[in-house]
Design a protein that fits this description.
Elements lengths: L11 H28 L3 E2 L10 E4 L5 E4 L1 H5 L1 H7 L22 H14 L1 H7 L3 E7 L5 E6 L5 E5 L28 H7 L2 H12 L3 E2 L10 E5 L5 E5 H4 L7 H4 L9 E6 L3 E7 L4 H11 L3 E6 L6 H15 L11 E2 L3 H15 L10
Antiparallel strand pairs: 1-2, 2-3, 4-5, 5-6, 7-8, 8-9, 10-11, 10-12, 11-13
Helix pairs in contact: 11-12
């Protein structure tokens, strides 16, 4: 007996049985493939071959793809076994689907229709007021909107939170892929700046309404209305330094009623004005900043309202004679000093004849 191991050749029956089992297995794979294609909305319009042969599928809208059954059912295995199909020279595995899925153009169209239909709901959810129709940079329908805080901007007229959005497709959304962020870019900037966040928080706590649309600039001055009905304004930086945001409630902008009228001059300019107290602080400022060291009138302790009235009378009288300021609104050429004094003294003689208005420097 020979030591060589003898292997019996397969019988005809075994060969036939193996062929039938292989055909049955391949048939099961093809049946599973066609079922999956049908469920995803595809129709097989080419002749089916083996599991490694490319099959052309069409959707209801006429879009076509080419894929192999093994790639559809097992993408990782298919990418290692399937060769480039005829006519797709120099195209790698990304040239055809790695796995069978819904028709992307059709899925994208369906998502866009659903997103457009639910845009009104999205606007309500995010406190957007629709102002007018517009167009996004990519040509999609858009809307000009205003957020709850008064910022106006343009947004794509589709709801980014609609389920089933096609991955990798952009629609000029500024809210991230899932649309969870605030659609207003200015509000997002404010929410990321601690001072602005603190200013809004304090406004809510103090029942102060911010009347202007806030930017993301901490030096911005905004108008405010407090619960007492005061209409004031304050810069964000300055407001945070006070205990109360309302300027009037905090007393930060409450100035004494002016009771002083003065006229100061030098060789070049003359400045009529009003102040409070004894007026010396204002005179020192004019002397140091503009060199106006000659005090021609300094009338103090005027009745309430008188200082503003005489100031208005003098300025209106100069304007009616065509005399215009050379700087600001109250700095005139020194050549007009006599006219300024004439108008002021005339007002006092007419309106306060018994007041010792002549007590001037």
């Amino acid at each position: 007996m020979s030591d060589d191991t003898q292997t019996a050749a397969p019988s005809v029956e075994d060969r036939l049985r193996s062929s039938r089992l292989l055909a049955r297995a391949e048939g099961a794979v093809m049946a599973l493939f066609t079922t999956q294609a049908y469920e995803l909305g595809w129709t097989v319009r080419s002749e089916l071959g083996g599991v490694l042969d490319h099959v052309t599928l069409f959707c209801a809208a006429g879009h076509s793809i080419q894929i192999t059954p093994v790639s559809a059912l097992h993408p990782e295995l298919g990418s290692t076994l399937v060769q480039t199909p005829p006519g797709m020279v120099n195209v790698g595995p990304a040239g055809w689907p790695a796995a069978l899925a819904k028709c992307e153009p059709c899925a994208r169209k369906q998502w866009e229709e659903a997103a457009r239909a639910s845009f009104a709901d999205y606007a309500i959810e995010t406190d957007l007021r629709i102002l007018a129709d517009a167009t996004s940079p990519s040509g999609y329908p858009a809307k000009k909107v205003r957020c709850l805080h008064g910022h106006e901007f343009t947004v794509t007229a589709m709801n980014p939170r609609t389920p089933g959005r096609v991955p990798g497709v952009t629609y000029d959304f500024a809210t991230g892929f899932d649309g969870a962020a605030d659609p207003c870019a200015t509000c997002r900037g404010i929410s990321q700046t601690p001072k602005l966040v603190e200013f809004r928080r304090r406004a809510r706590e103090q029942s102060v309404m911010i009347l202007d649309a806030m930017s993301n600039y901490v030096g911005q001055t905004v108008r405010l209305c407090c619960i007492a009905g005061h209409l004031t304004s304050a810069s964000i930086n300055a407001g945070l330094k006070r205990e109360l945001l309302c300027v009037r409630c905090s007393g930060a902008a409450v100035r004494p009623e002016p009771t002083v009228y003065y006229v100061v001059t030098d060789e070049a300019m003359v400045k009529p004005g009003i102040s409070s107290g004894d007026g010396q602080g204002r005179l020192d400022t004019h002397r140091s900043q503009h060199g106006l060291g000659q005090v021609r009138r300094l009338i103090t302790d005027l009745p309430l309202g008188a200082a503003r009235d005489v100031e208005r009378h003098v300025l209106n009288g100069l304007a009616s004679q065509g005399i215009r300021p050379m700087m600001g609104s109250e700095y005139f050429d020194a050549a007009h000093i006599d006219k300024v004094l004439e108008l002021a003294d005339g007002w006092f003689a007419e309106n306060l004849p018994d007041f010792p208005w002549a007590l001037s420097a």
